[in-house]
Each structure stands twice: as structure tokens, then as C-alpha cells.
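Hi there, hope your week has been kind to you so far. Would you mind checking whether the C-alpha cells look sensible for this chain? I owe you a coffee for this, so here goes:
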Amino acid sequence: MSLLEGLRLNVAESWGRLTDFYGPLVYQKCRRAGLSDQDSQDVAQNVFMKVFKSFHTFRRSPPEMLFRK
């Protein structure tokens, strides 16, 4: 099952894969922007909460486009 399929089906393992892979990237962006460790962790958590709450509206455009390049 692909990551996107798992997320659409709300498979916990897929959400774990998403946060394990993208979490460090979000955190690093926050740190590079000058946020503290704690603030960076809070922002990363908020980012993934927003992704979780709005993922049902995600549509690839065009459909063959990769989730991450």
C-alpha cells in the first residue's frame, strides 16, 4: 500500500511513516528560521495536525504528480 493510500484509509502506520519522514524536515526548517527547539517542536506538531484534519481534501494535480520530488 502506498503512503497516500494509507493516509486516505487513515492507517496509523502510514501517519507514522509520514511524520517520521517529514517531521525532521519541518523541524529543521523551523530551526533554520530561528525558532527555539520547543517552538520548532510545537510548530511541527501543529503542521501535522493541520495535515491530518485537511488531508481528505488533498488531490494531486496532475494525478501523476509525485507527493514529494
